[in-house]
Design goal:
The protein is mostly helical and 194 residues long. Helix content is 76%, strand content 0%.
């Protein structure tokens, strides 16, 4: 098994792994509505997600809840789909984006926490104490999330402030691109439930 001092890196690279693209897409879907002026709200979003995922992550690791991994893997693209559809709808209708994504982050964080726990449990010895590695793994996840959000805010600044892209168009284009990526993922994972 991996050494305890590597759990932070394991959590960090689990989120940034190309095979775990769904975590990155989830944060893009939630934070594409923010700019640097709203960086505090973007960080609050990470905090809400952390509360949700840490709750189910811990409960699952300690066998207090269990959900089949195929169901969790199917639900994760749905957690991406819903904010995308709201982003697209609000952009098309020229509505102001509200803070609903904070509540999505909290609720959907609970689903992602179940996904994190499956990955984490594959890397820990049953006889090993779980609390410290769990907290270190979660800390690694948080570091990765902060980097994702910083990149999204930087790109939003570049396109909106430097290239004069309208915010509405930025949100609409990014949301549609992510939608095109997750639809096949959703179909594939839905078919695997059979």
């Amino acid at each position: 098994m991996i050494e305890t001092n590597n759990y932070i890196l394991q959590g960090f690279f689990h989120v940034l792994d190309i095979n775990a693209l769904d975590h990155v897409l989830f944060f893009i879907a939630l934070t594409v509505i923010f700019t640097f002026k709203k960086w505090k709200k973007a960080l609050l979003l990470i905090t809400f997600f952390t509360i949700g995922h840490t709750l189910t992550f811990g409960l699952s690791v300690y066998d207090l809840i269990f959900v089949r991994s195929k169901i969790v893997e199917f639900l994760i693209p749905i957690t991406i789909l819903i904010p995308l559809l709201i982003n697209i709808n609000n952009s098309i209708r020229k509505r102001v984006h509200n803070d609903a994504n904070l509540y999505f982050a909290l609720f959907f964080g609970t689903i992602h926490g179940l996904g994190f726990s499956s990955y984490f449990l594959m890397r820990i010895d049953d006889s090993e104490a779980k609390l410290l590695p769990l907290l270190q793994f979660a800390l690694g996840i948080e570091f990765a999330q902060v980097i994702i959000v910083a990149i999204i805010l930087s790109l939003a600044y570049l396109f909106q402030d430097v290239f004069n892209f309208k915010k509405r168009n930025w949100i609409l284009i990014i949301s549609i691109l992510i939608l095109l990526i997750i639809i096949p993922m959703l179909l594939e994972r839905g078919l695997s439930l059979r």
